[in-house]
Every structure is written in C-alpha cells, then in structure tokens.
Design brief:
Blueprint: H1 2-10, H2 14-21, H3 25-33, H4 40-49, H5 54-68, E1 69-73, H6 74-80, H7 85-93, E2 97-102, H8 113-121, H9 132-142, E3 152-158, H10 159-163, H11 169-182, E4 188-193, E5 207-211, E6 220-224, E7 228-232, H12 235-251, H13 255-273
Helix pairs in contact: 2-3, 4-5, 7-9, 8-9, 11-13
Length: 274
C-alpha cells in the first residue's frame, strides 16, 4: 500500500507515526493492511509526517476522495453482469446491522416475489424478460438473512412507499401482510412513517447504512438515485446519515401501532377497490 511504502521510505515506525498524526498505532496497522480506509485529514497528516513529495500527497488525496464516494452506474454495471443481487448480498453479509430507509418503494429485503418481479419490470435500463425469474430468486435469497438471529435489521418506510403499487391491489395487500409478518421477528425493527407526521428531516433519496463491528472494515452508506448507486465511506458523511436516521426514527411508529397501521391501510385499499 502506498501509505506504508511512504512510511518505510521515511524510516518512521508505526508507533511514531501514530503519535505524530494523532491516531492509534492499531489504526495505523489496520490502514496499512487495508482493513480501514483513512479519512482525508488523516491522509494529509500522514503525507506531512513522512515528508512525502507534493505530487505523492496530491495523488493520495485524489485516491482518498475517489474511495470515499464510489459511483456505480446501473447501466455500466448491468452490461457486465445480469443482476446485482449477489453483489448486494455480499455487502449485507459483512454488516452486523443494516438500516434501510425507503421513501418510495418497499425495501428489497421485504419484497414478496410478485412485488419484486413487478418492480424489476419497471427498471430502466430494462432487464431481459427471460432473466426475471433468476433475478427475483436472487433477491429472495437475500431475505434468508432476516431469519439469522445473529444479524440485526432496521427498516424505516414511509406511507408513500407502502402505497406505491406496481400491480393490482391484491399484490399490495400481500406485500403489507409480508411486512407485518417480518415485523414480529426479534432481530428486526420495523418503523413506519405516516403521511400526516410532522417532518423532522426530508431526505431526497432512500439510503442504507451498513454498520460494521470494525473487524470487517468501517461502516458505509449507499444511496440509490435514478442512474446510479453511490457509496459513501467517509465517516463524517456516514455520521450525517446516522443523524438523519435518528430524526427519521423519531417520526416513525413501531410494534403493534405499526401493525395496526398496516391493517388499516389494507382495509382502506380494499374499500377503494370496491
């Protein structure tokens, strides 16, 4: 790794470097082994401490910023593989806690098979019709993790997302039942945000926080927008999304109140359908 190479060239021990830039020696080791991504201020301080040449410091700053915000175009990614469900599952498997906020759709980890199939048919660029069964099966396979008592999941879903209907009323009714059922799992927290709730924060996009225990790297957040998926690893950015999560959580209802809300929403949908 370039940071270790520069330290070795300067003849500075990990302990001395840690003292110079104000972080622990163990973090120096984790950075050099690739288990932790340093912040831009830490990389800047590192370059100064080892008296790296200006061009090396500039390169390190560029690389650090590129790592902290990764941009993955849906179109480019799907040209290289049929779907992304296996890749997403690998990310989920490495997190001790997954927090998902969705303002427009039911989260993938909660979708019924038919709801997922209908959602995939709406994607742009479109999936090949013949690939849909495999893609839906891969999404459902991700949901097995919900039943692992050693994993924790927290969901925040707006009423607008609950009312989004990619098919007939019966499809949405089954989806609401699925959410109510999963909400009874002890390792799952299900928060619903009614439309008439006073807003404490208004995120423009859904996001998912992947919280790590430190052994598998640092926590990060993913934000899905229309044309790409953004991955933010800067811990200051992650902290900002944690603050948003905290405010959204205060807006939500849980437990029996949430299940009663789902039941009422289902009753309203049946009445609207006649």
């Amino acid at each position: 790794m370039e940071l270790r190479r520069l330290r070795d060239l300067a003849g500075i021990s990990g302990r001395d470097l840690a003292a110079r830039i104000g972080i622990s020696q163990s973090k120096i080791s984790r950075i050099e082994s690739g288990n932790v991504i340093p912040s831009l201020p830490e990389v800047t301080a590192w370059g100064e401490a080892v008296e790296a040449p200006p061009e090396a410091r500039e390169m390190l700053a560029d690389l650090t910023q590129a790592v902290f915000v990764e941009m993955h175009s849906w179109r480019t990614a799907l040209q290289q593989q049929t779907h992304l469900q296996d890749q997403i599952r690998e990310q989920e498997d490495q997190a001790r806690l997954i927090r998902s906020f969705q303002p427009s759709l039911v989260p993938g980890l909660l979708q019924t098979a038919e709801y997922a199939r209908r959602v995939f048919t709406l994607f742009d660029p479109p999936y090949a019709v013949g690939d849909l069964p495999m893609i839906v099966a891969a999404r459902l396979q991700r949901q097995v993790a919900l039943y692992d008592e050693n994993r924790c999941f927290e969901f925040l879903i707006t009423e607008a997302a609950l009312r989004c209907r990619p098919g007939p009323v019966r499809l949405l009714l089954a989806q609401l039942d699925r959410i109510a059922s999963v909400s009874t799992l002890e390792n799952v927290s299900m928060g619903l945000i009614p439309l008439d709730t006073e807003s404490l924060v208004c995120p423009s996009h859904g996001f998912t926080l992947f919280e790590s225990d430190g052994s598998a790297g640092e926590s990060f957040v993913e934000i899905e927008v229309t044309h790409m998926r953004l991955t933010a690893r800067n811990q200051e950015d992650v902290a900002m999304y944690r603050r948003q999560w905290s405010l959204l959580r205060d807006m939500a209802i849980y437990g029996d109140a949430a299940r009663d809300f789902l039941a009422k929403l289902g009753a309203d949908l049946r009445a609207e359908a006649g």
